[in-house]
Amino acid sequence: MAILKILLVEDNPSWQKILKSRIRRALEGLGYKDSDYTIKVVDTFDEAYQALQENDWHLLVTDIELKDSHTANGNKLGTELVPIAHNQNIPTLTVTGATPLIYPNEGYFPKEDFDGKKFISQVQVLLK
What we know:
Number of helices: 4
InterPro entries: CheY-like_superfamily
Radius of gyration: 14 Å
Organism: Mastigocoleus testarum BC008
Largest sheet: 5 strands, parallel
Helix content: 25-40%
Number of strands: 5
Protein name: Response regulatory domain-containing protein
Shape: globular
Number of domains: 1
CATH architecture: 3-Layer(aba) Sandwich
Order of helices and strands: EHEHEHEEH
Distance between the termini: 13 Å
CATH class: Alpha Beta
CATH superfamily: Response regulator
C-alpha cells in the first residue's frame, strides 16, 4: 500500500487537532495504519502553496481564511488553493469559520456547526 500524503491547511491550533483527529479516524476506518500515511499541517497560504508545488498529495483539507489572508495582496484565501489542487487532481475539502463564500457543497464544512461524522465520511469517499 502506498503512503498517503494529506495536506492540512489550518491556522487555528485547536482546529488543527480536531481536523487531524477526524482525518486519522477516517483513515483507520479505511484500514490504514499510522505508518501508511502522513498528514502535513501548515498554517499559512504561502506554506500551503509551496507544499502543493513540492509534493504529490492525495488530499487537501484547507481552511478558507488563513492568518496571512489579509496581506497587502488581500487575495490569499484558502479557496485559492482549491483550483491549484484541482489542476493537480487532488481531492479537496474546505473548512471555515467565516461566512460561506461560494463553496457550500459536499466538500464544504462550516466550523460553527461542524459535522465530524460527515467530514470523516467525506474523507473516506475521496480516498477510496
